[in-house]
């Protein structure tokens, strides 16, 4: 059975793959600095967290591309986690609570895209959709 994924789901998964690739590239600061990107100094904890996020993004992308419900819920959990982290850091680390925070914006956009793709992960979607019929 050949299944054509909805474009929105493919778009979300592709953004996750891009994010994972950029995080992987950031693990090689000498290479990344040659193209003019500034990355923070690597520590053991930083590397472990980045590797965990890379693996998480790849697993989430696989689940999304397979149209698995666990992939959808992992994507929601991933975005909620980073939304909460962004909000906490926004109020704890800045003197101005409404200062620009890119992590907050990315999490809100990721959640809005994920919520709009929810219909593709409902139980009856694959049986009722003409995309999945031979």
Describe this structure in words.
The chain has 134 residues and is mainly α. It is 68% helix and 0% strand. It contains six helices and no strands. The protein is globular, with a radius of gyration of 17 Å. The mean pLDDT is 82.
Which key phrases capture this entry?
6 helices, 68% helix, 134 residues, mainly alpha
The count of helical stretches stands at: 6
Low-confidence stretches: none
**Rg (C-alpha, Å):** 17 Å
Number of strands: 0
Portion of residues within helices: 55-70%
The average pLDDT score comes to 82
Main pleated sheet = none
Structural class: mainly alpha
How does the SSE layout of this entry go?
Layout: H1 7-25, H2 29-34, H3 44-65, H4 69-93, H5 102-116, H6 125-128
Structure in a nutshell:
With 134 residues, the chain is mainly alpha-helical. The chain has helices at 7-25, 29-34, 44-65, 69-93, 102-116, 125-128. The chain is globular and about 45 Å long.
